[in-house]
Structures are given as C-alpha cells and as structure tokens.
C-alpha cells in the first residue's frame, strides 16, 4: 500500500465522519467492531449537524471528487430506492457541482489551443454554463462561422485525484479477494480494472470527441436522438469544442409537461435507443444520467433526445451480444429453461450447474415482474435478487457487462420518471425479435453472402494459384515433418544408448568398489572398475549433442 493510498484512505474516512454519514446507520444494526473502529477516530466529529442527511451525503460525495460524484449521479435516478429529498439532493451532482475559478479555466483553454482565446472565439463567457465532476463548460462564438459553441475543459489536477481513488479501490478489491478467497467468481480486481479503463478514457477529451462523432454518425437520420456537432480541429486531450444546443433537461418534467411533450413516445424511444445502441451498433452511451440528456423543444408531440458527454461508451463482444439478446428474448417469453441453458453455454455459470434448480431459482425472481407497468417493478430489486440467487450457483461476474447494467439502471430511472405506465415488454420485444431474425436464419445468411460477395469475386481468379501453392506447401510440410521425425528417432536412440552405458558403468563401479573393500583377491575389483570407467567414457561421448529436430 502506497503513501498516496494511505493518505487518500484517511481523507475518505475523515470526510465520511465529518459529514456524519456514520450516523445514518441504525444503531441497533451497527456491529461492535464498527463502533470500535469509529472510536479510533474520536477527534473526527460531525461538523454539519445543521444539515439534513440527504444534503450531507451530497456534500460528502462532492468533497470526495469525481469517482464518488458519479456514484451519486447514478443513485439520483433510482427514485424507487430513494425518497424525493434524497433524489433531489443527489441530482444536483449531475451538473451543479461548484465551478472552479474561471481564470484557471481560461489558462487551461489557452494552453490547449496554444494561443489566446480571442484569436478563435468571440463572446467567451467567463461564467460557466455548467460544472460537472470532471469538467466545466463555457460558452463562446466561433470566429470562423459565427456559430455558438461550448468549450469543455477538464478541472485542474483531476487526473491525480482520480488516480489516487483508483489505487485505493484496486487495493481494496485485492484485499477483498484475499479475505473472501472467492476472487475467481466475484473478480472484484478485474471489475475495478475495467472501471479504471473506462474513467481514465473519460479524462481524454479528444477521445470523447471521437466517440461523439461516431455516435452522431450512427444516428444522423434518426428522429429519436441528436448528438451535437463536434469541431474536431479544436479538440485536445484537455479541451473539447462542440455545437451549443438548447433543450429541456430530461429531469425537468414540469417544463416538458408545459410544452405538451408526448411522454409515452419519449419513453418508448428511450427504450428503443438503448437496444439500438447495444445490438445494432454495439456502441452505447454508458453515462446516461439526467445531467447528460436533454429533450428538444421542437415538435413536442414528436420529441427527440439530445445526448451529451460521450466520455464513457460501452461495447460488447459478438458472443456476449448474441447471448444477451437470446437471454432478453427468453426472458420476455418466460422461457426460464432457455435462460439457464444460455448461462451455462456462455460460461457465466459452471457446466456442472443443476439446470432445473437454476431454472426454478430464476423463475422465482423474474415471474412476479410480468404483466406490470414500469412503476410497479424495479430492475434494481430484480438484479439484487438475481445476484443473491447467483451466489448459490457460483455465477461468474462478467466485468464487460458492468457498464451495460449501469446503463440499464439509468434507462429504468429515466423511464420511471417520464412515463411510469410504460409497458417495457411490448416496447422491447419486437425490436429484439427483428434483430435476432437478422442474425440467424436464411435472411442473415443471405445478408452475409451479399456483404462478402464482392470480396469473394475479387479473390476468385486467385483460387487456382492459391490451391496449387497450398498443395506444394502441404507436400513440403509433410517432408519437413518426416525429417523432423527421423531426427527425433535418431536422437532418442543415441540417448537410450548413452543412458544404458552410463547406468551399466555406474553398476560396475559400485561392484568394483565393494569387491575392493571386501575381497582378498583384488583382480576382479580391478576388472570391474576398469570396465566401468571405459563404459562411462564411451557413454558420455555418445550422448546426443543437441535437441534441434
């Protein structure tokens, strides 16, 4: 454990105790060792007794920095788990984090541009438009075309703070694996390493710009999602410039209702966007908290989403994507036996798992969800119950699915907020059925043949020559293999002969030594020793020189 990790660990404990978060634990459920540990930090007292618990939690996460702020952002969407006051306070972490000094922002922007702001932009606003956990946004006008833009710049020293938190998390995960002795199943270190890759990628605004461009291109003709235009020539590791957009935050349901937004269509499009990004494009926005999602003010009867902050994007392997789609379909069709089979086939549970027992366990958790609207079910509760069930079947946690699970929770939170009566099953099932039809069966085979036909046509004239070359290569390889086999056999023969002579010489030398010490007549001893020496020299010299076959 490094000095930096110890220092950061102490800062986390200090912040938790000074904001009185330990008081949130029920006294009758607090274990004795926790009380003992709390007593070891007797000098750290609650300094915010005048504030309510929800505000204290928000301020503590704000104090601890980006990693904890992002946790608060995710929790703010879970109104089924939190009451309104807690959700309201944590929602402030989405885009109302206290800004840093605008003078520092100007310095950082000009360092990235390597020239004064006024050379490229007019009307630069020193007052930030928004301030988040990792970055801050200022507005300006681009000199070259007069378009309104926003300049997103990283907070000072944010990389060092995140690295310290990640080190602490890594060490905690390693300790957890050691204590539980169950790292192969839970794999906490691997999950944290996957999170490290994700959040460090978010610190590179150039990479975020490229992600935004790719996502924009995926939905250029869509009436469901709009991604602002990115000015790639003005994007750097710590600075990003993109089109300024105007919309209503998705969390401002009062304003959406006032403009006559079609909430049902909006909620359905949210579900469709999730499945489209995951299954059609295999490139999904994995940070869809309300601070990053706006709703258009144009045509409220036909609303579309505006997506920001593409720093965290997720992808899946083709195998995981296929198994996931089949799992969803089996789930929608209540085919729990197929779900159990898929988990075994994908390697997510052991091949020795009792399929029938696993099927019944999944059915007990999932069956109560059907025929209910979104406001009467909770994916969070279902995931918790599934994890509890999985512990009995040694399920292997899949780190590559962590981002997807997080995104699904965000989608559920948004859907519950916008249109709680949404029938999730009827919205998602047709999309998945169409996607599966395109992946398997005659239609999928025809599509693959059509896609590869130009390549095969180009390669067709080369087929005779390729066949001839491969036949020649095969004959040459057969000859080489025979030569290697002959060399190996000769090596083995020499080795056996040498070992036989050396063992025989050792026996003769031992016999000669015994006869020399016990026999009155010495000439048998001399013969054994002499013959043993001759055989040893012969065996040593007959050893194979090398093992190159």
What does this structure look like?
This protein is α+β, with helices and mostly antiparallel strands and 549 residues long. It folds into four domains: 3-91, no CATH class; 102-314, no CATH class; 318-439, no CATH class; 480-541. 59% of the residues lie in helices and 7% in strands. It has helices at 3-18, 32-39, 53-64, 66-76, 84-91, 102-113, 158-180, 183-186, 188-202, 205-218, 253-258, 263-281, 318-332, 336-345, 355-366, 379-391, 402-418, 424-439, 441-459, 463-518, 523-541; strands at 121-122, 130-131, 135-142, 148-154, 225-226, 239-243, 248-249, 284-285, 293-295, 305-307, 313-314. Strands 1, 2, 3, 4 and 6 form a five-stranded antiparallel sheet that branches. Strands 5-10-9-7 form a four-stranded mixed sheet. The chain has a two-stranded antiparallel sheet with strand order 8-11. The mean pLDDT is 78. InterPro entries: ABC1_dom, Kinase-like_dom_sf, UbiB, UbiB_bact, UbiB_kinase. Pathway: Cofactor biosynthesis; ubiquinone biosynthesis [regulation].
Main features:
549 residues; five-stranded antiparallel β-sheet; extended; 4 domains; alpha+beta; 59% helix; Kinase-like_dom_sf; transmembrane; cell membrane; ubiquinone
């Amino acid at each position: 454990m490094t000095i930096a990790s110890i220092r950061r660990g102490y800062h986390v404990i200090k912040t938790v105790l000074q904001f009185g978060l330990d008081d949130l634990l029920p006294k009758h459920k607090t274990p004795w060792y926790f009380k003992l540990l709390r007593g070891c930090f007797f000098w750290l007292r609650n300094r915010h007794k005048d504030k309510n618990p929800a505000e204290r939690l928000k301020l503590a996460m704000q104090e601890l920095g980006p990693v904890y702020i992002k946790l608060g952002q995710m929790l703010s969407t879970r109104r089924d788990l939190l009451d309104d006051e807690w959700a309201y306070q944590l929602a402030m972490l989405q885009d109302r984090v206290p800004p840093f000094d605008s003078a520092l922002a100007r310095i950082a922007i000009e360092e990235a541009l390597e020239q004064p702001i006024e050379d490229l932009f007019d009307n630069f606003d020193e007052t930030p438009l928004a301030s988040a956990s990792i970055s801050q946004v200022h507005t300006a006008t681009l000199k070259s075309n007069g378009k309104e833009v926003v300049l997103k710049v990283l907070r000072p020293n944010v990389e060092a703070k995140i690295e310290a938190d990640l080190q602490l998390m890594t060490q905690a995960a390693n300790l957890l694996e050691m204590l539980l002795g169950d790292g192969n199943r839970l794999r906490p270190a691997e999950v944290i390493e996957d999170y490290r890759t994700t959040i460090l990628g978010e610190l590179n605004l150039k990479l975020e710009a490229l992600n935004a461009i790719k996502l924009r291109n995926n939905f250029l003709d869509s009436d469901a999602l709009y991604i602002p235009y990115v000015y790639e020539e003005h994007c750097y590791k710590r600075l990003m410039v993109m089109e300024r957009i105007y919309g209503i935050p998705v969390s401002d349901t009062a304003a959406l209702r006032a403009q006559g937004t079609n909430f049902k269509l909006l909620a359905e499009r949210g579900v469709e966007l999730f499945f489209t990004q995951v299954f059609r494009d295999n490139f999904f926005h994995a940070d869809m908290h309300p601070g990053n999602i706006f709703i258009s003010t144009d045509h409220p009867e036909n609303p579309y989403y505006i997506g920001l902050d593409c720093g965290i994007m997720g992808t899946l392997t083709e195998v995981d994507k296929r198994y996931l789609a089949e799992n969803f379909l089996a789930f929608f069709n209540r085919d729990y036996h197929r779900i159990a089979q898929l988990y075994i086939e994908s390697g997510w549970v052991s091949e020795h798992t009792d399929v029938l027992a696993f099927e019944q366990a999944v059915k007990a958790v999932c069956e109560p969800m059907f025929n209910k609207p979104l406001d009467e079910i909770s994916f969070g509760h279902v995931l918790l119950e599934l994890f509890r069930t999985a512990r009995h079947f040694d399920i292997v946690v899949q780190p590559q699915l962590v981002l997807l699970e997080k995104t699904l929770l965000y989608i559920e939170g948004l859907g519950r907020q916008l249109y709680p009566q949404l029938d999730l099953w009827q919205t998602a099932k047709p999309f998945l059925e169409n996607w599966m039809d395109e992946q398997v069966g005659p239609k999928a085979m025809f599509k693959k043949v059509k896609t590869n036909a130009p390549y095969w046509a180009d390669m067709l004239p080369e087929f005779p020559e390729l066949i001839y070359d491969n036949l020649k290569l095969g004959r040459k390889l057969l000859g080489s293999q025979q030569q290697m086999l002959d060399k190996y056999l000769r090596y083995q023969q020499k080795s056996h002969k040498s070992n036989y002579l050396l063992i025989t010489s050792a026996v003769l030398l031992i016999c000669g030594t015994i006869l020399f010490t016990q026999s009155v007549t010495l000439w048998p001893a001399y013969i054994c020793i002499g013959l043993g020496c001759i055989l040893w020299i012969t065996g040593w010299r007959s050893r194979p020189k090398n093992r190159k076959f």
